[in-house]
C-alpha cells in the first residue's frame, strides 16, 4: 500500500477528538488544577499556573505541552493542548525537575523549595495520536472491586502518564439487562446468564456465562454510579473513553423468545464445559443482529453519552464456526454496521489478540477478511502483545488499518519480577519506521496491574518519545533515585542488577505469566529454568537490605524490599524443589526430608510473615475490597468467594488452576503452604513404602485443600504486622544461598 493511501486511511482517526470549545479548554484546565490539589495539597498546588489551549497543537495536531517559569517567587507555567497534555507536562516537571515519582504502590512527592526554574521554555509534542491503556481482563483481575476513591487515583495516574484513550466498561451489564428485558427475556434467564463480578471480563468477550453468578441489583446500581463518575472525570481531562458495543454473543434464552433465530453454539473455552461456556453467537445475516446491536448501543449512549470509539471482541480465544473469508467478513461487518446504525461516526477498537492466539486458524485470507470488512480508518487495532509477538509485521501493518503498538507484559495479575525492557524500549520506534506503517499510538494492555512498576514507567514515557531511551542503565538509576527520593549507590546498583536479569528477557517466545513452583500445584515435572542468573537477584536483595538504614522511611523502598525478598524466596523454592526432586528420584530419604522440610515447613511460613508486614501484600486487603462492595453479609460472602475462586481454582474444578496466582500473606500460609506440605508428605510416604508416587491421587487430595480454602470464611488481617526491614533481614540471614546454588539459567520461559 502506498504511503499516500496510508495517510488517507489515518485521516479520520487523526481528526477524531480534535477541536473543542473554549468551555472544553477551561474545564480541562480546571481538572488539572484539581489533580494538582489532590496530588500535592492546596499550598504547593498554588505555585503552578495551568491553562489549556488547543492552538498549541495547531501545527502537528498531536498533544503538546509547554513548561516555563518557576524559581524563587515565580509560578511554574503549565500549558497543554488538552488537559491530558497539561497533566503529562506536570508529570514531566515533577519527574525531571523535582525528582518526584508517581506510582501505584505509593508516590514520592517531596518538592524542593523554591520550586526549580525551567531554564528554557520546554515544548514537547507526542509522536503518538493515542496513548492507550487497559485490557478487557484488567477490569476483572485488578479493577473489579474498586470504589470511586480508587478509580479517582487511577484516572489521575492515567492523566499524569499522558493516557488519552482507555476502556470505560463499568455498568454495561445493567444496560444489557434493560435490553434483554425489552427483548422478552425473564429476569431469571438474565440472572442465569451473567457471570459473577470477578469473571465479567470473559462474559463480556463471550468466553463464559453463568459461572459464579448472578449479579445483584445493588451491583448494577453501584456500577452505573461508578461509570458516570469515571466518564465525567475522564472527559474532564480530555480523555477518550472507549465504550462497549455488541459483538454478537447472546444468552441461550434468545432461542425461547425467538424460536426461528439463527444462532451457532461455539466450542468450549478454558476447560469449562458447556454449562459455563460454549456461548451462542448470532448469525450475521439474521435480522435480529442489527436489532440487538442497535438497541444496546442506543440505550448505552442515552445513559452515558459517547466519544465515538467502541470496543467489541467476537472471537477472542474462540474459533469461529467457519474459516471461510466470506463468513468472517460478514460477521465483522455486522458488528460494525450495528455500531454505525446508532452512531455514524463510530470507530471500532479491536483487540488483536485473536490473530496471535490461534495462528493456525488466522491465515492471511482470514485476517484479511476481518481487516477488510470495515472501512479503512474506522477499525483501530490493538497490537496487544507487540513487545513479544508483533502482529503488524505479520499482517503488513494490519493491511492499512490504523493500529496501536501495545505492551501486554502481565498475565493474570501475577506477581514476579519480569520484563523485556530492551524490547519495550525499541519496539515503538521500530513499528513507526516499518514500511508504510499505520501505527497511530502506543498502549499498555496488562491483564493485571500493581506490579513491576519500572516497566510501566518506561512504557508511559515512550508514549511521549520519538526515539528509544539511549541508555537504559542510566534511566533505571534515575528511576531508583526518584522512586526513593534520594540517590543511594547500593539501591541503584541493585536496580542495575535487576535490569540485566529479571528485566532483560529477550527471547521471542517469553511469557509474562508466573510459572514458579511456588504458585503451581506441585508435581515431579515442574520446570525451574529462568532466563537470568539467579545470583543477580540474590545480590540485588542483599544490596537493598544494605541500603535499608538510609531508605527505610520510603514507602516505595519498603514495597520493593518486600517484592525482591518475595522474588528471592521464589528462586529459593525452585532450588529446594530441585533438591527434593533429585533426592526422591535417587531414593534418598534424608536429603528429601531436609530439602522438602525447609521448603514446606520453614521457608513458606517465613515468606508469609515478610509479606504480612506490608499492606500491599495482604490477602486481607484484597478480600476487604470485595466485601466492602456489598450491601449485606450474604452479598459480602458471595463477593469474597468470587475473589477467592479467581485467585486459585478459576472455575468449579480448577479449570484454569492458579492462572491468576498472587503471593499474598494469608494466601501463602493457607493455600500454597498446605499444598506443598501435602506434596512433601506424599513423596516421603512413597519413598518409605517403596511405591511409586501417585500424582493423580495427590491432585485429588490437593483439590480438596484448594476447594476448602475457596469455601472458607476465615477472615484475614487488612493491616500489616511486623517490621518489614527486620523480617526481611532475618529471612536473608537464614536463607541467603551459597554455592552451588549461584548458577545460571538461560531459558526464557518462567519466573
TrEMBL record:
Q: Which reaction does it catalyse?
A: Hydrolysis of terminal non-reducing N-acetyl-D-glucosamine residues in N-acetyl-alpha-D-glucosaminides
* Membrane-spanning segments: none
Species, as recorded: Equus caballus (Horse)
* UniProt protein name: Alpha-N-acetylglucosaminidase
Is the keyword Signal in the record?
yes
The top EC class is hydrolase
Name a biological process GO annotation. system development
User: InterPro entries, alphabetically?
Assistant: GH, Hex-like_dom2, NAGLU, NAGLU_C, NAGLU_N, NAGLU_tim-barrel
Highest taxon in the source lineage: Eukaryota
Where in the numbering of this chain does the Alpha-N-acetylglucosaminidase C-terminal domain appear?
475-733
Amino acid at each position: 500500500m502506498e504511503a499516500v493511501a496510508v495517510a488517507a486511511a489515518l485521516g479520520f482517526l487523526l481528526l477524531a477528538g480534535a477541536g473543542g470549545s473554549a468551555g472544553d479548554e477551561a474545564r480541562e484546565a480546571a481538572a488539572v488544577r484539581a489533580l494538582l490539589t489532590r496530588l500535592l495539597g492546596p499550598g504547593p498546588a498554588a505555585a503552578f499556573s495551568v491553562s489549556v489551549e488547543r492552538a498549541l497543537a495547531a501545527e502537528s495536531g498531536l498533544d503538546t505541552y509547554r513548561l516555563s517559569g518557576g524559581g524563587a517567587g515565580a509560578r511554574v507555567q503549565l500549558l497543554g493542548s488538552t488537559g491530558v497534555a497539561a497533566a503529562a507536562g506536570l508529570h514531566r516537571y515533577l519527574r525531571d525537575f523535582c525528582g518526584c515519582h508517581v506510582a501505584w504502590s505509593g508516590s514520592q512527592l517531596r518538592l524542593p523549595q523554591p520550586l526549580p526554574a525551567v531554564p528554557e521554555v520546554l515544548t514537547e509534542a507526542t509522536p503518538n495520536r493515542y496513548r492507550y491503556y487497559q485490557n478487557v481482563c484488567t477490569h476483572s483481575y485488578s479493577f473489579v472491586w474498586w470504589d470511586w476513591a480508587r478509580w479517582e487515583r487511577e484516572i489521575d495516574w492515567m492523566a499524569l502518564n499522558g493516557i488519552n484513550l482507555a476502556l470505560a466498561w463499568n455498568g454495561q451489564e445493567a444496560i444489557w439487562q434493560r435490553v434483554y428485558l425489552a427483548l422478552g427475556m425473564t429476569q431469571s434467564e438474565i440472572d442465569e446468564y451473567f457471570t459473577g463480578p470477578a469473571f465479567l471480563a470473559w462474559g463480556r468477550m463471550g468466553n463464559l456465562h453463568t459461572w459464579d453468578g448472578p449479579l445483584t441489583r445493588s451491583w448494577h446500581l453501584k456500577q452505573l454510579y461508578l461509570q458516570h463518575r469515571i466518564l465525567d472525570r475522564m472527559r474532564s481531562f480530555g480523555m477518550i473513553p472507549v465504550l462497549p458495543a455488541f459483538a454478537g454473543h447472546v444468552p441461550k434464552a434468545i432461542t425461547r423468545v425467538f424460536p426461528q433465530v439463527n444462532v451457532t453454539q461455539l466450542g468450549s473455552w478454558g476447560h469449562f464445559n458447556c454449562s459455563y461456556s460454549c456461548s451462542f453467537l448470532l448469525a450475521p445475516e439474521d435480522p435480529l443482529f442489527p436489532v440487538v446491536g442497535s438497541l444496546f448501543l442506543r440505550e448505552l449512549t442515552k445513559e452515558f453519552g459517547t466519544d465515538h470509539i467502541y470496543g467489541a471482541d467476537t472471537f477472542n480465544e474462540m474459533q469461529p464456526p467457519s474459516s471461510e473469508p466470506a463468513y468472517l467478513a460478514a460477521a465483522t461487518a455486522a458488528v460494525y454496521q450495528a455500531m454505525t446504525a446508532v452512531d455514524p461516526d463510530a470507530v471500532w477498537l479491536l483487540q488483536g489478540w485473536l490473530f496471535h492466539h490461534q495462528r493456525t486458524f488466522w491465515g492471511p485470507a482470514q485476517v484479511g477478511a476481518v481487516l477488510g470488512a470495515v472501512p479503512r480508518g474506522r477499525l483501530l487495532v490493538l497490537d496487544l502483545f507487540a513487545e513479544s509477538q508483533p502482529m503488524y509485521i505479520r499482517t503488513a501493518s494490519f493491511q492499512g488499518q490504523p493500529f496501536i503498538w501495545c505492551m501486554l507484559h502481565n498475565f493474570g495479575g501475577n506477581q514476579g519480577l519480569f520484563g523485556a525492557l530492551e524490547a519495550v524500549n525499541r519496539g515503538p520506534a521500530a513499528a513507526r519506521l516499518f514500511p508504510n506503517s499505520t501505527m497511530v499510538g502506543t498502549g499498555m494492555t496488562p491483564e493485571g496491574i500493581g506490579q513491576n512498576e519500572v516497566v510501566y514507567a518506561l512504557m508511559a514515557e515512550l508514549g511521549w518519545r520519538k526515539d528509544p531511551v539511549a541508555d537504559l542503565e542510566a534511566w533505571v538509576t534515575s528511576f531508583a533515585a526518584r522512586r526513593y527520593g534520594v540517590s543511594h549507590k547500593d539501591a541503584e546498583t541493585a536496580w542495575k542488577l535487576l535490569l540485566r536479569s529479571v528485566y532483560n528477557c529477550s527471547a521471542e517466545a517469553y511469557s509474562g505469566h508466573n510459572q514458579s513452583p511456588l504458585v503451581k500445584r506441585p508435581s515431579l515435572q515442574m520446570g525451574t529454568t529462568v532466563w537470568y542468573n539467579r545470583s543477580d537477584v540474590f545480590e540485588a536483595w542483599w544490596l537493598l537490605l544494605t541500603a535499608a538504614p538510609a531508605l527505610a522511611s520510603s514507602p516505595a523502598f519498603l514495597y520493593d524490599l518486600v517484592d525482591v525478598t518475595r522474588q528471592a524466596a521464589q528462586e529459593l523454592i525452585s532450588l529446594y524443589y530441585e533438591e527434593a526432586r533429585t533426592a526422591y528420584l535417587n531414593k534418598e530419604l534424608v536429603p528429601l526430608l531436609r530439602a522438602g522440610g525447609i521448603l514446606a515447613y520453614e521457608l513458606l511460613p517465613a515468606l508469609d510473615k515478610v509479606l504480612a508486614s506490608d499492606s500491599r501484600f495482604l490477602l486481607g486487603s484484597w478480600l476487604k475490597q470485595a466485601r466492602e462492595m456489598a450491601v449485606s453479609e450474604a452479598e459480602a460472602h458471595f463477593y469474597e468467594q468470587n475473589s477467592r475462586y479467581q485467585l486459585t481454582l478459576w472455575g468449579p474444578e480448577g479449570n484454569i488452576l492458579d492462572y491468576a496466582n498472587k503471593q499474598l500473606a494469608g494466601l501463602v500460609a493457607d493455600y500454597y503452604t498446605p499444598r506443598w506440605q501435602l506434596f512433601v508428605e506424599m513423596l516421603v510416604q512413597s519413598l518409605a513404602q517403596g511405591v511409586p508416587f501417585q500424582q493423580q491421587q495427590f491432585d485429588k487430595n490437593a483439590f480438596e485443600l484448594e476447594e476448602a480454602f475457596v469455601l472458607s470464611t476465615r477472615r484475614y488481617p487488612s493491616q500489616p504486622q511486623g517490621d518489614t526491614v527486620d523480617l526481611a533481614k532475618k529471612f536473608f540471614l537464614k536463607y541467603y544461598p551459597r554455592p552451588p546454588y549461584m548458577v545460571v539459567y538461560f531459558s526464557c520461559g518462567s519466573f
